[in-house]
Amino acid sequence: MDERQAMLDDIEQEVVYTRRDIGKDTLDPRVMAAMAKVPRQRFVPESHRFRAFANGPVPIGHGQTISQPYMVALMTDLVAPRADSTILEVGTGSGYQAAVLAEVVAQVFSVEVVEPLAKAAGKRLAELGYRNVSVRHGDGWNGWPEHAPYDGIVVTAAAARIPPPLVEQLKPGARLVIPVGEPGSVQDLQVIEKRADDSIDTRHVLLVAFVPLVHPSA
């Protein structure tokens, strides 16, 4: 069995383990196809490529990580992507989550607070042919208002509380998928859905562990 297939099998097994928490027995087939297609090894530092398809996060420098494959697949599924969706990602990191999203939606806008990571991810995504991803260096807490409202937002770092600007930048009916909790503690992966009257519905999915969302303007 090759490493990529082993990764896909690991994701499916994680879904089985967590099905009561996530409320489903399988993930969107389009998401699984994206996980199979995106070359994860290209988003991992060369020194850690032997771990590229392992069922866990991998360091990418600057105190950041590329998320566990299952978590990338789950968060992509939870944002309920459509082929015509425009999605905001907060926390570009290596660009892997953006690439997976780009396989299943029309446009991805991604914000990264660490400038070297933003530059490297933008270059990497361009080299891999992802023309529907735009990356910028900035404070993701504030989103990317110029392209709002969004059909969904995925945050790949843990916030101590829900950033109000991100809720504001959601379309009615759209979802914000975000880990919430203090740095160094277990966090709660939440799905925030914006109602037509601008109120929100919060769903608690499962306990997770993410690097903290860096918010320089706080």
Low-pLDDT stretches: none
Topology as a string of helices (H) and strands (E): HHEEHEHEHEEHEEE
**Shape call:** globular
Number of strands: 9
**How many separate helices?**
6
How do the strands of the widest beta sheet line up side by side?
5-4-3-6-7-8-9
SS class = alpha/beta
Model description:
The protein is an alpha/beta fold and about 220 residues long. The strands form two sheets. It has a seven-stranded mixed β-sheet. A two-stranded antiparallel ribbon has the order 1-2. α1 packs across α3. The longest helix is centred in the N-terminal third of the chain and has 20 residues. The relative contact order is 0.13.
Describe the structure concisely.
The chain is an alpha/beta fold.
Labels describing this entry:
single chain; 26% strand; 9 strands; alpha/beta; 218 residues; Rossmann fold; 7-stranded mixed β-sheet
Q: How would the blueprint of this fold be written?
A:
Elements (H helix, E strand, L loop, with lengths): L2 H20 L6 H9 L20 E4 L2 E3 L2 H10 L7 E5 L5 H7 L4 E6 L2 H13 L5 E5 L12 E6 L8 H5 L1 E11 L6 E8 L5 E9 L10
Parallel strand pairs: 3-4, 3-6, 4-5, 6-7
Antiparallel strand pairs: 1-2, 7-8, 8-9
